[in-house]
Amino acid sequence: MKALLVVSFGTSYKETREKTIYAVEKDLAAAFPDRKFYRAWSSGFIIRKLAKTEGLQIDTLTEALDRALADGVTDLLVQPTHFTPAIENDKMMETLRSYRSRFDRIAIGAPLLASDADIDRVITAVRSLFSFIGKNDAIVFMGHGTEHSAGSIYRTIDDRFQALGCPNFCMGTVEGDPSFDDVLGRVKALAPAKVWLSVFMFVAGDHATNDMAGDEEDSWKNRFNAEGFETEAILRGFGEYPEIRAIYIEHAKEAAVL
Question: Is position 144 annotated as part of the catalytic site?
Fold first, then answer.
């Protein structure tokens, strides 16, 4: 039997969960109608929280793999909703390798930003999706960031925005490079009339709601406000955009056999 397993980090925010994770799962399931669908999340904390607060039962990766084996799945296609081939993706790959001998075939699709071509396609989509940003305004994207070597992708994207003539498109990260201070310096030099804020993440969850647009003094919104800028936050995860979800479907279709 053939199956499709979609692996996500997860989120406790119901609205964004339905618009992003569930949306890409629906798109992927439609693209592979001959495969039985399975879901797995990697955040044990979020899984436990939702079980307690919503009574929602979500499998960990090992639970989903064991369930698929018990159901008689022999041919497994795995597509992560990860943005970069960083820590979460590495953990997923390690687990999948440990199960390789128990399936006849495991094929794995790449995360969103796995190649230079992916970066170019995402940047093209972003420029179109945010074309409403005026030349006198700036948009600041909040990526997650990581200490993993894949974290260099965020700096690459920022450089590409500049090279393509979008100096008012600025990339920052919560936990990596470029930092908020890097972005603040760029924005000050631009002196925009307004600063728009958007997450550069699959879901608009805790980072979007609190770190980016929260009421705390150290949120990005309030830090820009403290510098005298007018700000407006866009609380939409990238998983809400069909143009982004389409890339995951392509990656699933191009999945590499483990």
Answer: yes
